[in-house]
């Protein structure tokens, strides 16, 4: 019997599971296959109290818990702690609430994701795999809301938006008869 490391979900009776229930059951079933233990043993381990699981070696000493960042708690990629520091050091207000940097991080992450998605589409339209400033410029200026938000922003190396004035475009010919007459007249002389 080889020692296998396994992770278990601890779900308290009044707490919602972090995963849907069918995924929790699937994880327990997979763990039973990989650890060669029966399902009742795994269910008993999953139902253990948090003190039983977190003690180290049964000596009553708590195992060191890993610190969880505020970004991870909020489910964000942008740094909540750094934005909180910027808000405090910038002296925008005397005090900064605990939810303010989380909210601001979420807004910034959403805007970045929106711009990157549109820029990725622009890159794909140009048959490129890499986003360059030109793609960001095209993405921002073609989106009405982003163009309004970033109206006074100059994107370095972004280029200009392609636009040809209507008066400069060639006029469409009405019918083929007019074309033939014009062409035949020039051939006569």
UniProtKB/TrEMBL annotation:
Native source species: Cucumis melo (Muskmelon)
Gene3D superfamilies: Histone, subunit A
Pfam families tied to this protein: Histone, Histone_H2A_C
Domain Core Histone H2A/H2B/H3: from-to ranges: 60-141
Location relative to the cell: Chromosome; Nucleus
Protein name as catalogued: Histone H2A
Highest taxon listed in the record's lineage: Eukaryota
GO molecular function annotation: DNA binding; protein heterodimerization activity; structural constituent of chromatin
